[in-house]
Predict the structure.
Amino acid sequence: MPVGTVGSVKAISPDELRDDIKAQIILGNTYHLYLRPGHKIIEKAGGLQKFTNWNKPMLTDSGGFQVMSLSGLRKITREGVRFQSHLDGSYHMFTPERVMEIQNAIGADIIMSFDECPPYPASKDYIAKSLDVTLEWAERGLEAHNRPEEQALFGIVQGGVHEDLRRKSAEALIKLDFPGYSIGGLAVGEKKEDMYRITSFLNNILPEHKPRYLMGVGTPGNLLENIRNGVDMFDCVMPTRNARKGSIFTRHGKLIIKSARYEEDFTPIDPECNCYACRNFSRAYIRHLIKMQEILGMRLTSLHSLHFYLELMGMARQAIFDDKYEEFANDMVPVLESIVDHI
């Protein structure tokens, strides 16, 4: 899912997302949309899709990760989280009920339970206490959700890198019978081997017939390894954030377009790619735009990287249909994690 934090995937129009990138769903951020423009304005506009002119599905996260990142600007209790806005220092209170109210008003098709995302590193004792609160919040949020026929509410599995806590979390959420399950609290600083260990562990616990969403992940290699572990859905700012700085993902590895080697390279970013940027512009020109910090350069690199991510997921799906996923992933992951030195 391309990330549209405040209702917009940075530098990319809805038409480009739909027609060129072939995005099926995009993500908005509850915390940021609550602060600006405010959920009441979005509700008056007819919901987030109408407000943003996006006629396909949308997902909103709970704001738990953003509240965690506020660090000293928040206080957590069993009731909820009292925090200061990073914009103006004003005080606000998020409870499971309040977060459901906000997400119901925003109107995304898939919404998240309110959770505490523990920082990394944190002691197991802290994570265990945090998990108890998160599970209580999940039950309260489920009770407060007033649009279950229109919005699928996912429970968020927490528990850090501890398998016993992850099992406790998953089994408690399964009893609540959520339509889908998110895996939170990963890609927050732990080793990627620990991430893979936890997703592999949960693959044997979470229901096979309901979607699994790994939040905030990740590199192309991360995606393929976690698909191997049963994950169905991903989101990450990485393809666009890195692209705006000139680090571009391709099927041949990561290409650093600012490199001097591309100054007189008049070939596309990826000759095998059919995105708008690769059909129409050279590496030399895009390098020039990025070096000059021109908006068009950021748009073109973002278009390409998002197109690549969605194309890669299509290739992964086809490999699954063909019963060749293991071979596909084994061949692709080492290449995707490398730096381009040819093509």
Summary: The chain is about 45% helix and 15% strand. The first helix runs from residue 14 to 19. The chain has a mean pLDDT of 96. The first strand starts at residue 26 and ends at 29.
